[in-house]
Amino acid sequence: MPPNYRVYILKLDHRPERDKRVTMHTALVARAFGSQSFYLSGICDNNIKSNLSGVTQQWGGEIEFSCINNPVKFSKKWKEGGGEIIHLTMYGLQVDDVIDDIRSSLKDKLVIIGGPKVDPIYYELADYNVAIGNQPHSEIAALAIFLDRLFKGRELYLEFSGGTVRIIPSPRGKRVERKKEH
Amino acid sequence: MPPNYRVYILKLDHRPERDKRVTMHTALVARAFGSQSFYLSGICDNNIKSNLSGVTQQWGGEIEFSCINNPVKFSKKWKEGGGEIIHLTMYGLQVDDVIDDIRSSLKDKLVIIGGPKVDPIYYELADYNVAIGNQPHSEIAALAIFLDRLFKGRELYLEFSGGTVRIIPSPRGKRVERKKEH
To answer: Counting Cβ atoms within 10 Å, is residue A83 exposed (0-12), middle (13-18) or buried (19+)?
Structure first.
């Protein structure tokens, strides 16, 4: 049963040289775990867009990609439009203490993932500042655990339409099925 | 209640120039989610060691770090010594289908995280080839979700002894407590 809301990811302050692989991992988690869109602020990086597009061509599904020039303005508009904001930060409340509230709200959700220095305004704009544990680790891990809690693990069974290949889960080795063309 | 086994992480095929941030994220997840050690094969990278050490000095706990010259030999010895191997791969069996077996075995666990090209021998050496969903995403996310399933979410409440700071979870902003010296 799909939820009644959609989930969008905004990664702040991307710097291609330093972040390309970390941001790509984040985008792939966004896609694989059922997000609608991946928004990127900082330096616009069309390599992320084309890599993500390559993955959806091969593995199916679709996820929108956009660069965001002014993420504060974007976030304010998001809230004015009736959406809510979840800011992932290790300083926030433990995910288990707020996930039921977040899940039961019917608002579309913008999940904001900071860079090394997050403008304090995001802590104010957020409806929820959420920590995945209060230890330093990884925004990639944080996004994955957050979406896993939100979707109660069902995201691991998403079927992606289209694409050319599909994995057959296997105890040993690699089994890949080529999808037939229709 | 701590489990009766320990969990060790082996990241294969590290290349410092390309992987430094992704491997560092992986090491931080290993630490934050309760692993005993972080082993690195490929090119030995003492920056990972010193960064990890800096994090434990500030945030507490301890995690061993070692570079492994011959990871196949190391993995074979691990099994000869009575440990079991979990290889995280998107081609494996869904985590939900095997996690109860893995959790109930009392053997120490070596969780192997591959690089882009994994020697097929790891699929054979592994007691379990485990997928976190069968879509491409991120080994960082995969490790986090695997450990979260293994420890049933309790890892987010680990207390780390020592260190100089501790976060007080907060709905807004950052609250950090400086630990008193003893």
So the answer is: middle
Q: Is A32 on the interface with B (CB under 8 A)?
A: yes
Whether ipTM > 0.90 holds is yes
Write the CA distances from A38 to A27, A110, A160, B175, B177, integer angstroms. Answer: 6, 10, 17, 30, 34
User: Which residues share a beta bridge with B129?
Assistant: B87
**Chain B window 37-96: which residues touch A at a Cβ cutoff of 8 Å?**
55, 59, 90-96
Sequence-ordered list of residues with C-beta below 8 angstroms from that of B61, at least 6 positions apart, any chain: B31, B158, B160, B161, B162, B163
Chain B residues inside the 8 Å CB shell of A174:
91, 123
Both structure tokens of B135:
């879509």
Helix axis angle, B16-32 relative to A139-150, nearest 10°?
50
Cα gap B12→B79, rounded to integer Å: 17
Full pLDDT tens readout for chain B, 182 residues: 567 899 999 999 999 999 999 999 999 999 999 999 999 999 999 999 999 999 999 999 999 999 999 999 999 999 999 999 999 999 999 999 999 999 999 999 999 999 778 999 999 999 999 999 999 999 999 999 999 999 999 999 999 999 999 999 999 999 999 987 65
Q: Which two tokens stand for residue B4?
A: 């009766």
| A180 touching B (Cβ < 8 Å) | no
| Domain annotation for chain A: domains and CATH numbers | 7-178 (3.40.1280.10)
Q: Name the one residue in this structure whose structure tokens are 């957050």.
A: A146
Task: Please answer whether residues A27 and A67 qualify as being in contact, where contact means their C-beta atoms are separated by less than 8 angstroms.
Answer: no
User: What is the β-pairing status of strands B165-167 and B176-178?
Assistant: antiparallel
- pLDDT tens, position by position, A69-109: 999 999 999 999 999 999 999 999 999 999 999 999 999 99
| Sequence-distant (≥ 6) Cβ neighbours of residue A45 within 8 angstroms | A14, A16, A20, A23, A67
